[in-house]
Automatic annotation (TrEMBL):
This is Acyl-ACP--UDP-N-acetylglucosamine O-acyltransferase. Its EC number is 2.3.1.129. Keywords: Acyltransferase, Lipid A biosynthesis, Lipid biosynthesis, Lipid metabolism, Transferase. GO terms for molecular function: acyl-[acyl-carrier-protein]-UDP-N-acetylglucosamine O-acyltransferase activity. The gene is lpxA. Pfam families: Acetyltransf_11 (PF13720), Hexapep (PF00132). Residues 174-254 form the UDP N-acetylglucosamine O-acyltransferase C-terminal domain. It is an enzyme of class 2 (transferase). Coiled coil: none annotated. InterPro entries: Acetyltransf_C, Acetyltransf_C_sf, Hexapep, Lipid_A_LpxA, Trimer_LpxA-like_sf. The keyword Lipid metabolism applies.
Length: 258
């Protein structure tokens, strides 16, 4: 199931039942997991590791050198998990020495046409990245996040799980988990209620998340004061996850528009 026009380096390891389309190139020291389908005119760069059952569509460039002026050709890697869909003309770069020389993409992600994922990004699972989304270097993306069409994320931002970023949004600070962000200069617009319900969250769980959101964004408090009040809430995984996210934030968090 490997087209005769494909060019595959002798060091590449290919699993069972892999398809490689016409005129695709797989460079040295890469690994392609079982059940992967690679379309035509795809380039998979050196030191790229794909798990099982990934679908890479026509014209995608996966594991290209990082677009960073500090990169001097050192050995770097891209690791992708299982069951990801990568649509036409997506680009994903390898890591740099300013990170740990790795870019990592988890499993069950859906990455649509013309999206770009830059060097040293750490992406979790079950994310949807819509057409033309541009993600800068060193961005940390948790799980179950939706990025609307044409949105962009500044380097070194953190995006919390179950967040929703609206189409055309510019994200230059961290997006708190479970929140809805939108606008040319992103602001928080509340809780991502539709996304939470679609993922099976109960009314009680959503109510807990709303309380956290109210403390952070709807009361005139400093971030330290908000963290102190959140600490006083009853124990919950949502409280603990949000607090851990806030403690790790270095760029500050996107706020609600006043």
């Amino acid at each position: 199931m490997i087209h005769q026009s494909a060019i595959i380096h002798p060091t590449v390891v290919i699993g069972d039942n892999v398809e490689v389309g016409p005129f695709s190139i797989i460079e040295e020291n890469s690994k392609i997991g079982s059940g992967c389908r690679i379309g035509s005119h795809v380039i998979i760069g050196a030191n790229t590791i794909l798990g099982g059952d990934n679908h890479i569509s026509h014209g995608a460039i996966i594991g290209s050198d990082p677009q960073d002026k500090s990169y001097q050709g050192e050995e770097s890697y891209l690791i992708i998990g299982d069951n990801n869909t990568v649509r036409e003309y997506v680009t994903i770069c390898k890591g740099t020495s300013k990170g740990d020389c790795f870019t990592r993409v988890g499993s069950n992600n859906f990455i649509m046409n013309y999206a770009h994922i830059a060097h040293d990004v750490l992406m979790g699972d079950h994310n949807v990245i819509v057409n033309n989304v541009q993600i800068g270097g060193h961005v940390n993306i948790e799980d179950h996040i939706t990025f609307g069409c044409g949105s962009g994320v500044h380097q070194s931002c953190n995006i919390g799980r179950f967040a929703m970023i609206g189409a055309g949004s510019k994200v230059s600070q961290d997006i708190v988990p479970y929140s809805l962000a939108d606008g040319p200069r992103s602001y928080i617009h509340g809780v991502n209620i539709v996304g939470l319900r679609r993922n099976g969250f109960s009314n009680e769980e959503i109510s807990t998340i709303k309380k956290i959101n109210t403390i952070l964004f709807r009361q005139k408090r400093t971030l330290d004061q908000s963290i102190e009040e959140i600490n006083n809430l009853p124990p919950s995984e949502f409280k603990e996850h949000t607090l851990n996210f806030l403690y790790k934030s270095t760029r500050g968090i996107v706020r609600m528009k006043r």
